[in-house]
TrEMBL record:
Database matches in SUPFAM superfamilies: Mob1/phocein
Name assigned to this protein: Mob1/phocein
Species annotation: Penicillium egyptiacum
Extent of Low complexity compositional bias: 73-83
List of residues binding Zn(2+): C157, C162, H267, H272
Amino acid sequence: MLRLCGLVAIGCSISLLPLPPHTARRIPRRHKYKGAFYCPNRQGFGRGGNNKSNNPPKSPAQTSTPQHQATMSNSPSISSSLSVENQANDPEGPKYFFQEKYAPLNVRGNFLTLCACPKNVELGEWLAHQIVEQYRLLHGMLQVIQEVNTVTGLPICNENTCPTMSAGRLTYTWLVDGRAAKISAPKFINRVEKWIVSKIHDPVMFPTEKVNGTPETSAIKEANGASTTPSDPANPDDWIGKSSGFPPTFYKDCQGIMKQMFRCYAHLYHAHWLNPFWHINKHDVLNMCFVHFVTVSKYYGLVSDKEMEPMQPLIELFIKQQRVPPEALNGGHWAQQAAT
């Protein structure tokens, strides 16, 4: 039976999805705030969605929707030109997930309460927490397509169904010996997960030792009568996380991690929304994780609009519905802090 790592059973609760074993040891410092901010009941979250039955839904009616494509680049993986190879997952197939009637969430509430940095938490610490939390949610979704079919002995996402890491007609490539190479989606996702875990476990990028001095938070700045304008990501002398021991490249590394996570979400939707998420009636859980991801990405400027183009119709729909809160747009964290 397919599983969603706790999300199937608890529905609206996003606080009980367990951390992957390989990230669990980062809890002592990086997750000391988790209990206070990830309880849906405390944050006004409730059950959402419109699926009243636990029975798998029938396939959606055949309709056509616009497709969006893009060419992107960055390491360790870069996107190639549009692929013209035949694939098991039809890139020309209808994109039901771009339609409003197929875009419910399994929770109700304002995702800003889950991503906005509290005044008593240093921004670098909070971003590190957000990165680990977003990987935790993504990992749960990836486990669904990695479930092995007992009949075929193959996972849902395998070398035959997904010979390339695609999102519609867009194909992402991985750097192999310094050259862009097309690899299967299972291999791509496996390398992304290993790369993210290596970053999270890097004591230089994600330091866990106690730092000397007091981290600079908005609350401390207000108490001292100093300006609460947050650190500019582009400022080489006052980078995000500096007072908490994070390296100057920390914010850029966070952007790289979130970009790779977005590419995994793009593949989940374009290649696997129908099978398995729609078939097991858990597309609303995938939507919840993705809305949370997009809110964090936009609020802190972690994924560019160009990178998000493969999912732009759905993102625009969530923005229109204000599931991605207005505060996450037009400057996000920096605009909100400057206005207070």
